[in-house]
Design goal:
It is built from 17 helices and 13 strands. It is an alpha/beta fold and about 500 residues long. The chain has three domains: about 80 residues, Orthogonal Bundle (Arc Repressor Mutant, subunit A); about 120 residues, Aspartate Aminotransferase, domain 1 (Alpha-Beta Complex), CATH 3.90.1150; about 200 residues, Aspartate Aminotransferase, domain 2, CATH 3.40.640.10. The chain has an eight-stranded mixed β-sheet with strand order 3-10-9-8-7-4-5-6, sandwiched between helices. It has a three-stranded antiparallel β-sheet with strand order 11-12-13. Strands 1-2 form a two-stranded antiparallel ribbon. Helix 2 crosses helix 3, helix 9 packs across helix 13 and helix 15 packs parallel to helix 17. The chain is globular and about 85 Å long.
Length: about 500
């Protein structure tokens, strides 16, 4: 019998200095692996000849151990399928596994856990981690059916079939230079960002970019501003760096500078989403942008601009980034490809003022050395060959259609219960719940979850304020048929 690649790995150590026989030692160690769950029911064991070679013993020694395990119903051998752990576990094993664990084994009782880690697991992070496989109505999930995966695989293969040898040892702390150059050119042409490749750092998504910025700027106890309501992942990263987070309210023009001055006039950083505020979808007015830049200069503070889905604007003139208005080099610009291409790509970037390049490089070297190079060359080719821009144009057309379908489906099936107004950008809508229906948005979100749907409550993004009850409904990743079907599912779940 030949060893299969699916055979279980056995970690068996034989001691020739004890009286116990070698077959007994093999028997006991395999039995212990089964009893402790390290070997699962149905796991295939290596062939006796292969295991004997690995252990440097005779095949008869292994056969004797296997026969003893088989006599106690731990193993079963069948022609063509090899020797496996039995699927019907012995009563002894069932009894051992059914015994309650000692409370001392609980992680909380073993060693100290930081107060910060416990705090970050609280309400501020609700809605960030969604069950994999669920699509409706997950905010921020892009369309995955229309991504050119065959083209993408050809680009990857073209590069990695014969990669430059200097890329196989270590990488630049800032990332693959051709990709950084392509990003700088793209941002200058499309978003009005003024930068060169030296200012661009490739990251594992926007979250790592926020973390790098926070570690570079913030000392424990420093005040920062975040939008309220706002993205919990941003607040968490700032808190993890030791910041004292001040949640600043919004009005129809964006973050309220007056409220920020009242709470923490001397904050060292303000984190904002000016192009498309998350989650409300507000676009910060030019007047408010200039007011924010004026405050930053006055307070000698940095501005963190998260431009997370700026590619998807459906009407009106394209909006330039806040960074392009900055005359004093205080704006740090963050973007991501995960919401444009596909989430597991995990590639983003941060554009920093020249005065921060050395500092952020030092932090990067301390925590991450350099970003993985596996997909950066492919992404560079995807952008420089024009496929990225073409894909975005296709998605813009697709997403505005899907937004219209979602609004129509809500009018048809949820009339009098949910209402969502059109938005000229983004990948989700905020659907208000009719107050006369008599449920809050947390209850509505839980009913949706019970029906297998994701519809985060707006209140989960708020800190210390109350807004009218509403649900966030992402539409970008749903087909036309799914939008119609899942709106009906959602309405039925809420009415039930």
């Amino acid at each position: 019998m030949n060893s299969s690649p699916q055979s279980a790995l056995l970690f068996i150590s034989l001691d020739y200095g004890i009286s116990k026989s070698l077959p007994d030692q093999i028997y006991n160690q395999i039995k212990e692996a089964v009893l402790t769950g390290r070997l699962k029911p149905g796991a295939r064991l290596p062939a006796t000849r292969v295991l004997a070679n690995q252990l440097a013993v005779s095949r008869n020694t292994v056969v004797a151990a296997f026969e003893l395990l088989g006599s106690e119903d731990y193993l079963v051998s069948r022609p063509g399928s090899g020797t496996r752990i039995t699927s019907h576990l012995p009563e002894e094993l069932l009894m051992i596994r059914s015994q309650p664990k000692n409370p001392v084994d609980k992680p909380a009782d073993v060693g100290k856990i930081s107060k910060l880690s416990l705090h970050l697991g609280g309400d501020d992070n609700k809605g960030r981690h969604h069950t994999s496989g669920l699509r409706a109505f997950r905010p921020g999930l892009p369309d995955l059916e229309h991504f050119p995966f065959q083209l993408w695989s050809r680009i990857i293969g073209r590069f990695w079939r014969n990669p430059p040898r200097d890329l196989l040892s270590s990488g630049d702390v800032a990332g693959y230079l051709p990709l950084r150059e392509a990003i700088a050119d793209y941002l200058g042409a499309v978003r009005g960002v003024r930068c060169n490749a030296d200012q661009v750092f490739i990251t594992s998504g926007a979250q790592q970019a926020i973390d790098l910025v926070a570690r570079t700027i913030i000392d424990p106890g420093d005040d920062v501003w975040v939008e309220n309501p706002g993205y919990a992942g941003l607040s968490s990263a700032l808190m993890a760096a030791g910041a004292r987070v001040n949640h600043i309210i919004l009005d129809e023009e964006g973050i309220c500078i007056k409220n920020g001055r009242h709470k923490a006039a001397g904050a060292v950083l303000a984190a904002v989403t000016p192009s498309h505020q998350y989650p409300l979808g507000i676009t910060m007015s030019l007047k408010r942008r200039l007011e924010l830049l004026e405050w930053a200069e006055e307070a000698n503070a940095w501005l963190l601009e998260d431009d997370f889905d700026s590619e998807f604007r459906y009407s009106g003139k394209p909006l330039s980034a806040l960074q392009g208005l900055d005359q004093t080099n205080r704006v740090i610009y963050i973007g991501t490809f995960s919401k444009v291409l596909f989430p597991s790509l995990r590639l983003g970037y941060v554009v920093v003022p020249e005065s921060l390049i050395d500092a952020i490089a030092n932090i990067r070297l301390a925590v991450d050395d350099h970003p993985t190079l596996a997909l950066q060359p492919a992404l560079h080719a995807f952008i420089s060959d024009g496929y990225f821009s073409s894909h975005i144009r296709k998605l813009r057309k697709l997403y505005i259609e899907r937004q219209g379908l979602l609004i129509s489906a809500l009018r048809q099936y949820a009339d009098g219960l949910l209402f969502a107004a059109p938005n000229d950008s983004g990948m989700h809508l905020v659907a208000s719940i009719n107050p006369s229906f008599g449920i809050d948005d947390k209850t509505a979100s839980q009913r949706a979850s019970n029906a297998g749907l994701i519809a985060p409550a707006l209140s989960d993004y708020c800190t210390g304020i109350s807004l009218p009850a509403a649900l966030l409904l992402g539409y970008a990743g749903l087909s036309h048929r799914e939008i119609d079907r899942d709106v009906r599912f959602l309405v039925n779940a809420l009415r039930r």
